[in-house]
Design brief:
binds manganese (II) ion, 9 helices, 3-stranded antiparallel beta sheet, 198 residues, mainly alpha
């Protein structure tokens, strides 16, 4: 048993001109592959953990043997984060539903306010990491920043929608202009997929 790189449901060039094909290719076939390879290598002496799915592995983070905490945090988190990230993007943009807008408006004042806060969080995240919309155990929705490949599941929260703001996600096309990349990403979000995770 081992973890595997998921196939994309669209081609590397499908998100052009918003996300460029070279970035997609390197991000998926190199960066994500490396997280998968290192996760498998780091767990080679733990067949019970290799047999789990990635969601359960991360959800059970607090009960892991200490010697695998780092590999699961970095490479398990990396594998899961990217797997969700690919699913959250689509070449065929569809507007968010009224239902989704209502849920988010109830938590953030308005849908527009949610979008503005999410973009602001992602823009201001220092260094490498992810911005997530999470659902807490109590059912509240919040926007949270996590460093590196940490994931909401490790903190008991359910991940709904996340953007990768590591430089490898945008540097080839946008260089230092992270805000430009964040704006582009909002043109390829799969709002149906977001609503499924709500
Ligand atoms: Mn990445």
């Amino acid at each position: 048993m081992s973890f595997e790189l998921p196939e994309l449901q669209y081609s590397y060039e499908a998100l052009e001109p918003h996300i460029d094909s070279k970035t997609m290719e390197i991000h998926h076939s190199k960066h994500h592959q490396t997280y998968v390879t290192k996760l498998n290598a780091g767990l080679e002496n733990h067949p019970d953990l290799l047999a789990k799915n990635i969601y359960s592995l991360l959800s059970d983070f607090n009960n892991l043997p200490e010697e695998v905490e780092n590999v699961v945090r970095n490479h398990g988190g990396g594998h899961y984060n990217h797997s969700v990230f690919w699913e959250l993007m689509t070449p065929t943009f569809i507007e968010p539903s009224e239902n989704l807008k209502l849920v988010l408006s109830a938590n953030f004042g308005s849908f527009e306010n949610f979008i503005a806060k999410f973009k602001e969080s992602a823009t201001n995240l220092f260094g490498s990491g992810w911005t997530w919309l999470i659902k807490s155990k109590e059912g509240h929705y919040e926007i949270k920043n996590y460093p590196n490949q940490e994931n909401p599941l490790m903190h008991g929260d359910h991940p709904v929608m996340g953007i990768d703001v590591w430089e490898h996600a945008y540097y080839l096309k946008n260089q230092n202009r992270r805000n430009e990349y964040i704006e582009s990403w909002f043109n390829v979000i799969d709002w149906i997929e977001v609503e499924k995770r709500i």
